[in-house]
Design goal:
The protein is mainly alpha-helical. Helices cover about 40% and strands about 10% of the residues. It starts with 5 loop residues before the first helix and ends in a 5-residue tail after the last strand.
Amino acid sequence: MAQRKLSTQVRKLVEEDGRTRYEICKLAKIDQAAMSRFMNEASGLSLPALDRLGQVLEVHLQSRRLHAEPVGELRAERISNGLPTPIGKSG
């Protein structure tokens, strides 16, 4: 099966759900205008909105490309002598 973008898959799930978009928006706490823009491919939805939408549609949404560190693990680094040095440490 060919891979499709997550947003395309979510749009299909919304279209195939037996509820109206209004009902889905209410349950997922998503603004109807934002959902309309998303469904018409004019904009995306935030990750929290996609998560709520997934819960309403009873699916687990996961991007295969997402390999980010948790926010608490992110480090800022400066380049010194060609080597990264964590900010706050001398080197």
